[in-house]
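Usage

Read records sequentially. Each one opens with the input sequence:
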Amino acid sequence: MRGREEIALSFDANPGLTAPQQRRAAGFVTPQPQFRTPMMPSSGGGQGGTSGLPFLSFDLGASSSAPPPRVGSYGGGNGGFASFEDEAPLLEELGINPRQIAQKTFAVLNPLRANADLHEDGDLSGPFVFCLLFGLCQLLAGKFHFGIILGWGSLASLFLYVVFNLLAGRNGSLDLYRCCSLVGYCVIPMIIFSALSIFIPQGGPLSFTLGLLTILWCTRSCTSLLVVLAPCADEHKFLVAYACVIIYSAFAMLVIF
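and closes with the structure output:
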């Protein structure tokens, strides 16, 4: 009887529990699971030593004493980058040789002597600069011809290239790159004529006379260089000169009119 009374009292002490929970409370106590915090061993290497922080271990003393990674420096040492003094100039990396451009310019300005050794290696940096100078002189005269000059220069180089290779046949050795270089460098007298035309009346007899002399100058320079550079151009010298007259007459008309 006493045991039953104790069970009844325990049921009355927890009125919020359901019947199954009251039965379990009366019979036994459910054991609670025990969670143990894992402890990581310290990096010190001592026997049985553990870190005071769970999950992670921070060894600030070891990380601060480690030397930083070395990166290659500008000293020219093993594995390092080259110094700025050892690098090539920017113009040389771009393939621009100002000294060679100046020598080719003075060679074109001398119509009585053609130095073909300088024009053996063609370049487009000099002709591009001269086309810009030609357009600048035209701009000072009130004419905006930059696109026309570049377009006519490209078509003129292609025209001279096709004409010469048709005349030479299988023996033609003139490439388009060298042809563009020759046409561009031989336009230098036309730049002088364009600069002088700013100070003289356009369409007058003086302008036509200077234009005719400039055409002959440009034709003489381009034909002489082309004959020396191409081995078979001597046989078709006058036909090549006729093509050059057509090319530089078109540039002269931009200046006169």
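Summary fields computed downstream for this record:
- Confidence is low (pLDDT under 50) at residues 7-13, 43-51, 71-77.
- The chain is about 55% helix and 0% strand.
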